[in-house]
Each structure stands twice: as C-alpha cells, then as structure tokens.
Design goal:
It is elongated, with a radius of gyration of 27 Å. The protein is an alpha/beta fold. The chain is built from 13 helices and 15 strands. α12 crosses α13. The strands form 3 sheets. It has a 6-stranded mixed β-sheet, sandwiched between helices. The protein has a 6-stranded mixed β-sheet with strand order 8-9-7-10-11-12, sandwiched between helices. The longest helix is centred in the middle third of the chain and has 16 residues. Helices cover 34% and strands 20% of the residues. It has 3 domains: 170 residues, Rossmann fold; 175 residues, Rossmann fold (3-Layer(aba) Sandwich); 79 residues, K homology (KH) domain (GMP Synthetase, Chain A, domain 3, 2-Layer Sandwich), CATH 3.30.300.
Length: 463
C-alpha cells in the first residue's frame, strides 16, 4: 500500500462517479452533468474521512470500445487506476438496474484482486428499488445504497472505506490545559512544507496541453491524440521541481464563443476559465505551426486582466525549421500583442520530444516569485521622487498635478497606490510612464502590475 491509501471510483458512464468524488473530497473539482461520458481523464483528490486522509481517483465511464478509439483510451486510463488502487468503489445506478456493461466490468474489477465496495447510487430514500436488488447479481455481496447528490448514506460509505483499508481515526488532539505552553504544543504539531504553486496550462484545442502535462509528471495520465477537445475538465497533478511542489491543471482547449455549440464544450470552457482564475501562474501553450492566432491573444489578455502571472510556451518546436528566425518573430509578436505585460517569458518547447521542459519550469518559478514581489516603501518613494523629477506630471487647467506618496498594499499581482491631488485628471499616458518606469526600476517583467491613484495627501505624514 502507498503512503496514502488510493481509492478508485469506477463504473459505467452516468452512474454518478464524479458526483461521489466531489462529495467525498468536499469540492466541486469534477464536472457534473446528466450527459454521459463527460469525464475522460483520471482525476485525483484528497478526501479527509474524519481520520486518515486518502487519495481518491475519479475515472472515466467504462465502455466497450474499438481499439484505438477515444473510449478505448479512456478505458485504459481506468484500468490503470484500478491497478494502482488499494480499494475500488464500484458504482451502479440504483434506478436503472444492472446492465450488461455493469456485469462486464464487474468481472474486470474482480479480476484485479483488489477489495471492492459495491455502491448503488441514486437511491434517494428508496433502498428497495429493483436496481438495488439487481446489483446483488454482480457478486460483491450486499450493495450500499447512497445518494451522492443529496449526501444520503455517505456516513455508512465512509465507515466501510475505513474498515476495508484497515484504518482507524486518530485520537483527537488534546487542547493545551491550564498553564501549559501553547507555543510548545504548537511546535509539536507536524510542520507543513511549502505550498504548491498552482499552474494552469491553457490554450486552443490541440495545442498539446495534455501531452505537456504527461511529460511533466512522467506518466500518461491524460488522454492524448490528434482529435481536438479530448480534455473536458481541469485535472490536477502534483509534481516537485527543485524541492518546490507544483500543482498542474490540465484544461480544456478554449475556442471562440461563437464556435462553442455542444453542452460538454460549454461546461469545459467554463471550467478552464475557472482554472485560470484559481491559478497563480498560467502557461499559455501555443502551437508553433499556428502561432499567436487571435484566440491565443484573447486568452493571454484574459489571463492578465485576471491578474495572473503569465508564461508563454511555444509547443511542437521540434518541427520548426528555421528556429532562430521563428523565435525572433515570436518575441516581436509577444512584445506587440501582449504589451500590457512587457517582458513576459517566452519558452520554446516540445512536449512530445520532452525538450525545453526544464527551462519552462524555471520560468514558472521565477515568474511566480516576481508575482509575489514586494518593494519596501522607502525605495518606492525614492523612485517616485526621481521619476517625477525626470518627467513632471502635466498641468491640467493651468494647475500642476502633485503626486505625494506611494505604497504597495498587496502582491499577487504587485499592486501600488499613489496619493495624488486631482487624480481624476492625470492623463493615462503619464500613468503608463510611471508603471513602465516602476517595472524597469524594480525588475517586474512579465507580470501584471496594478498602479492605482487615490485622492488626497500622504495618509501617513505627521500632522
């Protein structure tokens, strides 16, 4: 058994596996819909069952499929999840009853030799449904009736999981008694390591996002292929880079809204946008054969408006012939089209050939550090005095505009506030001058910088 027990949720499409995954992990990480087959990749999450934590794996619906098809690749991912699991949660639909597909894949679960808990889902207050009794025929003993959507029977399921894994809830931690040293008690608690950097891989369909994630994690966890739109929901994978944990989110390809028709793609696009907002660093993956189409620039603009740190990766670089000429052209395009974040990192990679990946990881960590950078207030105000001396604010209606003080209230992204009389009439061009000067002076390339003006004098000045 691995350091943390691994529990795989398996079953045919549309029996509620992703709903159960979300319920047990207390998240909304997995896309949920009445549309069967929405989940395609393996998704992992942590479940705290009131005691020891477990790794929970949501899988694609098991279906009979022709070799090489998308459904066949989905099935292979599920088979791999079963092979790596310590416990299998086999889910059937209590309303629909047992189908031939359930029976076929019950044999697969049994052949694995892993312990199996049979779950009859969608049994809202109706344990005696025909489907519930049908599931006895699968040979896993009495099914556990639950409703993942409404939370019914989840307590019993957790108890069965703990028993099957041989786990016991740890003793409750005693609060320090009267006269005890709180600091000593706190020091005895396990130390938390560095938090993972949340990195979303985004781009147009078929740019190679899943292939890149597979290359970075060192295994074929994401389904890949020539068909665009294989990835549907944002799947997280954890890796380490030079001791720094990183959580990668593979996302669905983003197309123009006018081209999005089917429900699955609408859900996928919404999930990808949510991943951008949740991420700290966003890698915009571009196809070298079709570099910087309008949709690429739209995605880049969305990332910077959300205030996320941005790294541009140009994929399929191994097939580019004149690499130096192509790289010069790409850098010029980036400088012109993403002028709102001058100096954004541009990395040429090949996810398939696994080249350029180390440089990409270095740029991700470097950009994350810049995104968190804080400048001391005295240095900011020395810079402000010099910037004003070099280029004074223009007069408005015959009166000079005075900027008296600047501070940095927050990072992620770096945000600065200057106190200014008549802030509403300061030209945007002058504000851009200050922002660019600040970037250059304090080394803030490639990350969004917020520069805001506030009316009034220095609020910290002595009166």
């Amino acid at each position: 058994m691995s350091e943390l027990p691994v529990v795989a949720i398996v079953g045919r499409p549309n029996v509620g596996k992703s709903t159960l995954f979300n319920r047990l992990t207390a998240t909304r990480a997995a896309l949920v819909s009445d549309m069967p087959g929405l989940t395609r990749d393996r998704r992992e999450g942590m479940a705290d069952l009131g005691g020891p934590r477990i790794r929970l794996v949501d899988t694609a619906g098991l279906e009979e499929a022709a070799p090489g098809s998308i459904a066949d690749r989905m099935r292979k991912q599920t088979e791999k999840a079963i092979a790596e699991a310590d416990l299998i949660l086999f889910v059937v639909d209590a309303r629909a009853g047992v189908t031939p597909t359930d029976t076929a894949f019950a044999k697969l679960a049994r052949a694995s030799g892993k312990p199996v808990i049979l779950i009859a889902n969608k049994a809202e207050g109706r344990q005696g449904t025909e489907g519930f009794y049908d599931s006895f025929s699968l040979g896993f003993g009495a099914p556990l009736a639950i409703s993942a959507e409404h939370g019914e029977g989840i307590g019993d399921l957790v108890a069965e999981i703990m028993a099957a894994l041989g786990l016991k809830p740890p003793a409750r931690r005693r609060k320090p008694g009267k006269g005890e040293d709180d600091e000593a008690a706190a020091a005895a608690l396990p130390k938390e390591g560095p938090k993972p950097i949340r990195v979303a891989i985004v781009g147009r369909p078929n740019a190679g996002k899943s292939t890149l994630v597979n290359a970075l994690i060192g295994e074929d966890r994401m389904i890949t292929g020539p068909e665009p739109g294989l990835t549907r929901d944002s799947v997280a994978s954890d890796i380490q880079y030079n001791g720094q944990p990183i959580r990668l989110f593979d996302t669905a390809g983003l197309r123009r809204k006018a081209r999005i028709n089917e429900l699955a793609e609408k859900l996928s696009a919404s999930d990808a946008v949510r991943a951008i907002r949740f991420a700290e660093v966003v890698v915009l993956l571009i196809d070298a054969d079709r570099a910087f189409e309008k949709q690429d620039l739209t995605i880049g603009d969305m990332v910077t408006k959300e205030g996320r740190a941005l790294v541009v990766a140009v994929n399929k670089w191994d097939v580019v012939e004149n690499k130096q000429k192509a790289l010069r052209a790409l850098r010029e395009t980036v400088a012109e089209s993403l002028a709102q974040v001058p100096g954004v990192a541009l990395v040429a990679i090949s996810a398939r050939a696994e080249t350029g990946l180390d440089q990409l990881m270095r740029e991700i960590v470097k950009t994350y550090e810049l995104w968190n950078k804080r400048v001391p207030t005295p240095q900011l105000n020395r810079w402000l005095s010099e910037a004003l001396a070099r280029h004074a604010p223009p007069a408005a209606a015959g009166k000079r505009i005075k900027i008296r003080y600047i501070t940095q209230p927050s990072t992620r992204p770096p945000t600065f506030v200057a106190f200014c009389q008549r802030a509403e009439v300061l030209p945007k061009s002058y504000l851009k001058y200050l922002t660019n000067s600040l970037r250059e002076t304090f080394g803030l390339p490639g990350v969004p910088v917020r520069f805001n003006l506030r009316k009034g004098d220095n609020p910290f000045a002595r009166k």
